[in-house]
């Protein structure tokens, strides 16, 4: 085996290890976030901050909405995945809000 062949073999090994490391880091970095979003406790409308922001789990019963179609799922703050019933909202750290919910801080997506 020539020096050139040995260098190529070394590069191939390095690239395999590097690709494996990137894939593992990506999976490990994503898993906790996915688990966190699913495991968040649901925000209670009786939570003091939720109550102050008039949060409701059912936007059809919300008082003071500008647009009847407004709900958490179409709010700019909502971080839930499409189709999920519950998702994170940065206004309520550590809790999940109902995708069909609403609060006075609803922000329209532009
Ligand atoms: S800020 Fe938006 S996503 Fe968060 S609770 Fe209010 S309406 Fe829902």
What does this structure look like?
The protein has helices at 3-39, 48-52; strands spanning 86-88, 96-98. It is mainly alpha-helical. The protein folds into 2 domains: 1-39; 41-110, High-Potential Iron-Sulfur Protein, Chain A, CATH 4.10.490.10. Strands 1-2 form a two-stranded antiparallel ribbon.
CATH architecture of the largest domain: Irregular
Structural class: mainly alpha
* Mean residue pLDDT: 81
The H/E string reads HHEE
Taking all Cα atoms into account, the compactness measure Rg is 23 Å
Quick one: biggest sheet? Answer: 2 strands, antiparallel
CATH homologous superfamily assignment of the largest domain:
High potential iron-sulphur protein
- Distinct compounds present: iron/sulfur cluster
Please name the defining characteristics of this protein.
110 residues, mainly alpha, High-Potential Iron-Sulfur Protein, Chain A, two-stranded antiparallel sheet, 2 helices, 2 strands, 38% helix, binds iron/sulfur cluster
Summarize the structure.
The chain is mainly α.
List the helices and strands and how they pair.
Elements: H1 3-39, H2 48-52, E1 86-88, E2 96-98
Antiparallel strand pairs: 1-2
């Amino acid at each position: 085996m020539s020096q050139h062949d040995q260098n190529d073999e070394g590069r191939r090994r390095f690239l395999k290890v590097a690709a494996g490391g990137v894939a593992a880091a990506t999976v490990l970095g994503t898993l906790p976030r996915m688990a966190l979003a699913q495991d968040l406790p649901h925000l209670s409308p009786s939570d003091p901050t939720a109550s102050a922001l008039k949060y409701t789990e059912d936007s059809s019963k919300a008082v003071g909405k500008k647009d009847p179609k407004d709900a958490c799922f179409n709010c700019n703050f909502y971080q839930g995945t499409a189709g999920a019933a519950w998702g994170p909202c940065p206004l309520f750290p550590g809790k999940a809000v109902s995708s069909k919910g609403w609060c006075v801080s609803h922000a329209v997506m532009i």
